[in-house]
Amino acid sequence: MSHYYIKSPEDYAAAYQKSTEDPEGFWAEIAEHFQWMKKWDSVLSWDFDGPDVRWFNDAQLNITENCLDRHLEERSDELALIWEPNEPSEDSIQFTYGQLHEEVCRYANVLKKNGVNKGDRVAIYLPMIPDLAIATLACARIGAVHSIVFAGFSAQALADRINDAQASAVLTSDGMYRGNKKLPVKAIVDEALEHCPSVHTVLVSRRTDEEVPMQAERDRFLADELKTVPSSCPAEPMDSEDMLFILYTSGSTGKPKGVVHSCGGYMVYAAFSFQNVFQYAAGDIYWCSADIGWITGHSYILYGPLLNAATTMMFEGVPTYPDAGRFWEICDKYQVNQFYTAPTAIRALMAQGDKHVEKAQLDSLKVIGSVGEPINEEAWQWYHDKVGKGRCPVVDTWWQTETGGIMISGLGPHSPMKASHAGLPLPGIQTILLDQEGREILENEVEGYLCVKFPWPSMLRTTYGDHERCKNTYFSNYPGHYFTGDGAKRDADGLYRIIGRVDDVINVSGHRFGTAEIENALNQDQRVAESAVVGYPHDIKGQGIYAYVILKDPIDAGSAMENSLVESVVRGIGKIARPDKIQFVPGLPKTRSGKIMRRILRKIAEGEASSLGDTSTLLDPGVVEIIKAGAL
Ligand code: WT7
């Protein structure tokens, strides 16, 4: 039996056991399924103090050769990618493995022609059009490091990410469609690039066909460039530990950090986890509704499925356009077999009633997945009953940008399933719970800090340009362990239930923000003296953003000020981080040492001001009463 394909609870138990008793043997056997230009000298070397983790050391490979070339002999004419446009009436675009291979090679040649070399960082700021998938793979083909920035981020957020990575090229489009809106894209890039001297090349895909200003030295239309290059491009040999991509994500302090993933381990784990969680079978149509700008799209729209020669879909639009039945129509239209989405989408659609979902057949579905935030029981049940028709296993997949792949989840129908529980760790994943003192809790029916005590192939290797930050954020709280930032429970059967973040990170509609990041954006307004942001429970978004703001001059308080603060956040981060509530306050609850007591602010925002607990250590307990009285 190959541990690559887990097809029963017994397979899982055997694979898990093997993966802990002989991790190197286990992963070496999985890695044999891929095409390596040179095999590894050692499977694993690691030290969580550095941290310094190497998988398949000294091996060489190119992930695109494994995603594309490897399938050409047998599957050249099978569908690799199906693109569904925003408008249901517009034609879908489909690529066979042969066609996708050629598109990627051409784009790769355009990159080379424009002076992009192996190791260069390339920022990709593209909407969900096929060129996003092609551009990403084209970077990997030539060994350029892609840094995809979700196309909903603001110019300032884009500029920060370009500068941090010192990207030399930006791949973008003229504009984009999203629901009933047509939005600018190139204009945002132009604004960002006023502050980005490292960028020498901008390649522009056509989508909305509007006029966009082009800078003669810097900007090229992709279509013109494609005409000038050959259609084949050899895959660049990459060391297993060479950087494959950077993806920025928010933490509890400072600016977003560039999570770095490397080639070999990421490839092996993205492929292995995709296959087993979704139980993909040849001929299936798999659809993940995420955006490729997030890690979910990287691992489970692109790399995981393509590594398994799957047919993967990408959807340009939103769940509610033209109406709340769109997801279900798409599932029926393409006879989707595995569907993967976020709790926030499920809750938003559930709120529209059952008429849309009941109109659809949904009889092709075999596995339905959830990702990004805890899924509450009501949403889980609705998803299971109305979408899965009580027939499909729900895989609630817990993982993070930093983990590269799914860590805790059911494996299709082969795992115990319990509402709102992610379940058991995948083979090779040694999750543990720690108590306040950092001791491992061995019993079940407990709650603790979720950590991982052994390396897995797709774990982050560093944070770009700042290895100390990687160490401090993930490997210092509990020395010898990777700390996730999440709290979790473990039930009597060992199934994990994720509670949520225990740090100053909030999860809004499955998007991750640091409270400090939003505060920085608010503080850009010169009239703000100080601000404090917390999350609060929100019916659709999971968490909403609640901002307490002290103004230098209280006379400025009012709706005009509120609007301008919202604008500040939209400018600094993007519309996705727009605060839901802004309360002007005369002061903030602080300890005598000047630390803001967020616990109190969270309670007030949650509407639980009656149970504030001990406030005696506060510098000025009176301010709490004033904030409570004015709470929104
Ligand atoms: C954080 C990571 C990885 C995909 C998208 C989010 C939360 C993620 C679940 C889940 C409960 C979840 C955690 C985690 N999270 N999946 N199935 N159940 N919580 O990636 O932006 O890196 O955020 O999302 O809090 O730490 P991300």
Written overview of the protein:
The chain is α/β, with parallel strands linked by helices. Among the domains are: 68-78 and 95-236, Rossmann fold; 509-630, ANL, C-terminal domain (GMP Synthetase, Chain A, domain 3, 2-Layer Sandwich). Helices cover 32% and strands 24% of the residues. The strands form 8 sheets. An 8-stranded mixed sheet has the order 12-11-8-6-7-14-15-23, with helices on both faces. Strands 5-4-17-16-18-19-20 form a 7-stranded mixed sheet, sandwiched between helices. Strands 21-22-24-25 form a 4-stranded antiparallel sheet. α4 packs across α5 (130-142). Residues 249, 294-296, 371-374, 396-401, 422, 484-486, 498, 500-501, 507, 512 line the site of 5'-O-[(S)-butoxy(hydroxy)phosphoryl]adenosine (WT7). The site of 5'-O-[(S)-butoxy(hydroxy)phosphoryl]adenosine has 23 residues, from α10, β20, β24 and β25.
List the helices and strands and how they pair.
Blueprint: H1 9-21, H2 23-31, E1 42-47, E2 52-57, E3 60-61, H3 63-75, E4 79-84, E5 93-96, H4 97-113, E6 121-125, H5 130-142, E7 145-148, H6 155-165, E8 169-173, E9 175-178, E10 181-184, H7 186-193, E11 201-205, E12 219-221, H8 222-226, E13 238-239, E14 243-249, E15 257-262, H9 263-278, E16 285-288, H10 295-307, E17 311-315, H11 326-334, E18 338-341, H12 343-350, H13 355-359, E19 367-371, H14 377-387, E20 394-397, E21 431-434, E22 446-452, E23 462-463, H15 467-475, E24 482-490, E25 496-501, E26 505-508, E27 511-514, H16 515-523, E28 528-538, E29 542-551, H17 559-572, E30 581-584, H18 598-605, H19 622-630
Parallel strand pairs: 4-17, 6-7, 6-8, 7-14, 8-11, 11-12, 16-17, 16-18, 18-19, 19-20, 29-30
Antiparallel strand pairs: 1-2, 3-13, 4-5, 9-10, 14-15, 15-23, 21-22, 22-24, 24-25, 26-27, 28-29
Helix pairs in contact: 1-2, 3-4, 3-10, 4-5, 6-7, 9-10, 12-14, 16-17
The chain binds 5'-O-[(S)-butoxy(hydroxy)phosphoryl]adenosine.
